[in-house]
């Protein structure tokens, strides 16, 4: 029982990354943080034999089952982190679609404006969590493109209205 408790304590320290030690006045020379998606993928791709090499001993059946459950949870977490970028991308596409529909149906452009702002905000929040998320970048870009097209439409409408003669 003591050995199992000792192993669990040591295994928990294996998965917790310690903070860099040093004086508070000396700046860190490099900050090599692993992005969350890459960290989860690395754990999910580990095999039992790789873990046994790292530990230097064979795992028991109970430890193998626990490791399998951990891998399943990590795979679920990796899929969950992609949903934020995907939702920003979908909102950006909705904004662009509402803009096209708004050319023919009045007052839909207001919904396009709201969706574009949401796409920009959601994309930037997701890029802060995971800078390498391509769907977050695309959602943010679609939001900015939609806002630019709305501004262009407003300028064109102002030019057309100002060129009318009011006799």
Structure at a glance:
The chain has helices at 2-15, 36-45, 48-55, 61-102, 108-129, 134-163.
Protein described:
By secondary structure, this protein is an all-alpha fold. The chain has one domain (37-161). The chain has helices at residues 2-15, 36-45, 48-55, 61-102, 108-129, 134-163. Helix 2 (36-45) crosses helix 4, helix 4 runs parallel beside helix 6 and helix 5 packs antiparallel against helix 6. It is rod-shaped.
Summarize the topology.
Blueprint: H1 2-15, H2 36-45, H3 48-55, H4 61-102, H5 108-129, H6 134-163
What distinguishing features does this structure have?
single chain, 167 residues, 6 helices
General form: rod-shaped
Please give the largest β-sheet. none
How large a portion of the residues is in β-strands, by DSSP E? Answer: under 5%
Low-confidence stretches: none
SSE string: HHHHHH
Measured on Cα atoms, how large is the radius of gyration? 26 Å
How far from one another are the termini? 96 Å
As for the number of domains, it is 1
Instruction: Figure out the total of helices.
Output: 6
Helical/strand content category: mainly alpha
Give the strand tally. Answer: 0
Overall mean pLDDT stands at 81
């Amino acid at each position: 029982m003591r050995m199992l408790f000792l192993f669990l304590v040591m295994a928990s320290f294996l998965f917790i990354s310690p903070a860099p030690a040093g004086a508070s006045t000396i700046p860190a020379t490099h900050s090599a943080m692993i992005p969350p998606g890459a960290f989860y993928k690395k754990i999910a791709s580990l095999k039992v034999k790789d873990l046994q090499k790292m530990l230097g001993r064979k795992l028991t059946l109970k430890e193998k089952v626990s490791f399998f459950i951990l891998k399943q949870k990590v795979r679920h977490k990796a899929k969950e982190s992609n949903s934020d970028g995907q939702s920003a991308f979908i909102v950006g596409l909705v904004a662009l679609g509402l803009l096209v529909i708004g050319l023919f149906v009045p007052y839909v452009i207001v919904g396009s404006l709201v969706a574009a702002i949401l796409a920009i905000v959601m994309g930037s929040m997701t890029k802060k969590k995971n800078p390498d998320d391509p769907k977050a970048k695309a959602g943010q870009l679609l939001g900015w493109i939609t806002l630019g097209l709305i501004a262009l439409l407003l300028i064109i409408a102002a030019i057309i209205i100002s060129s009318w003669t009011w006799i």
